[in-house]
Design brief:
- The protein is mainly alpha-helical and 71 residues long.
- The chain is built from 2 helices and 2 strands; from the N terminus they run ααββ.
- Strands 1-2 form a two-stranded antiparallel ribbon.
């Protein structure tokens, strides 16, 4: 789901590099979108880590002890 934020984040970043820059409302929107994007990426990573299984050379497998909660 993180991909849905990227077009708007990129558009705001591009506008921020122009001479007129961003309005205060756009800066707030940019910060909010970046925060949501980061939370989405971290949540996805935690989900992947929670489903990771390590396979030993002898063929046995285990899940790593550190479990990550997707808050």
């Amino acid at each position: 789901q993180a991909y849905r934020y990227r077009p708007r984040i990129n558009a705001l970043a591009k506008k921020a590099r122009t001479p007129e820059g961003l309005t205060p409302a756009e800066k707030e929107e940019q910060n909010a979108l970046r925060t949501e994007y980061r939370q989405s990426v971290v949540g996805n990573l935690k989900g992947q880590l929670n489903n990771t299984v390590v396979i030993r050379p002898d063929g046995s497998s285990y899940r790593p002890a550190g479990r990550y909660r997707a808050d």
